[in-house]
Write a sequence for this structure.
């Protein structure tokens, strides 16, 4: 099989220095994790390079066989899953480092806002993206540092007496303080890079749908369902339909809009407050359905487990979603 190098650059509003990839017999899978079959970007990478495009939503592929992963994440958990494994990641959304795994997203391993137009054959002399060697170098340097630190500690402890006490006490205090500092840094980074932008996005989205009148159209369309228990059960079934739930999952935009609109209706007295809890369960049947294959991959599930696990979870949601609405409705009388 003849393979060719492909160049992948960032699109408009994208992030990353770009990737240059060449498949090998051992690493020739372009993993498409976009909850909609093979994405056009993944298909073009595979077509130009001679690699094989695989739908990661229905198939599990070992990490050592993946040439690159194509995702559609705007900056939550999935955006950092594959960079954490040092797998070259191509995001079709204009994302940038964000979420709890933001520290693993680096320019040499990630590029975003990619469309088929940003995928082309690499020119001669192109520098190939090699994630594994860089990871080996990092591990080698870290191991050397840890060995030197352990040797210095052994020398200090072997002195015994007061020196041993001071070293042990200082190590304990240092570990405690560093843990607090690291937690504070991660919390601040998470708030600044993920939570605040997400709040701004929700505010902008609600402003747009309210100003344009879309909110009234959605409210009028959903209100008949949300105004009675049977309608809420039907709404829960609709959001959990296996074909729709992976599409509605990313960003949970539908749930956000409908949730705010129903909250406004309840606040205005148009709907009883007892409908708040069942409405919440009715509009969230799709939550996490787009993350199922990624979660199975993180758990190192076998291919057979993935092929059975994804539809099993999707169809189980179709059953549990309306049941959750019923239970929430019964529990709402205690509010």
């Amino acid at each position: 099989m003849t393979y060719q190098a492909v160049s992948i650059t960032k699109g408009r509003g994208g992030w990353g220095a770009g990737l240059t990839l060449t498949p090998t017999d051992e690493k020739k899978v372009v993993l498409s994790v976009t909850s909609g079959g093979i994405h056009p970007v993944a298909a073009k990478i595979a077509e130009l390079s001679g690699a094989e495009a695989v739908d990661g939503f229905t198939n599990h592929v070992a990490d050592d066989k993946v040439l690159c992963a194509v995702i559609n994440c705007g900056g939550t958990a999935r955006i950092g899953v594959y960079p954490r494994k040092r797998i070259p990641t191509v995001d079709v959304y204009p994302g940038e480092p964000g979420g709890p795994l933001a520290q693993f997203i680096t320019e040499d391993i990630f590029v975003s806002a990619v469309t088929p137009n940003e995928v082309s054959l690499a020119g001669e002399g192109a520098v190939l993206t090699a994630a594994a060697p860089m990871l080996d170098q990092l591990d080698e340097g870290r191991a050397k540092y840890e060995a030197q630190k352990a040797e210095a500690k052994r020398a200090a402890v072997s002195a015994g007496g007061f020196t041993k006490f001071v070293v042990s006490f200082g190590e304990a205090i240092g570990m405690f303080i560093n843990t607090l500092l690291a937690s504070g840094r991660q919390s601040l980074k998470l708030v600044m890079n993920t939570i605040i932008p997400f709040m701004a996005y929700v505010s902008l989205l609600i402003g747009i749908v309210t100003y344009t009148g879309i909110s009234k159209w959605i409210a009028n369309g959903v209100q008949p369902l949300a105004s009675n228990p049977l309608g809420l059960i039907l709404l829960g079934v609709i959001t959990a339909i296996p074909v729709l739930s992976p599409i509605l999952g990313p960003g949970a935009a539908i749930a956000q809009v409908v949730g705010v609109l129903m909250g406004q209706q309840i606040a205005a007295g148009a709907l009883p407050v007892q409908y708040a809890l069942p409405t919440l369960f009715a509009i969230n049947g799709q939550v996490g359905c787009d993350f199922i294959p990624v979660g199975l991959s993180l758990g190192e599930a076998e291919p057979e487990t993935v092929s059975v696990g994804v539809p099993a979870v999707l169809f189980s949601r179709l059953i549990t979603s309306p049941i959750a609405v019923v239970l929430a409705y019964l529990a709402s009388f205690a509010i």
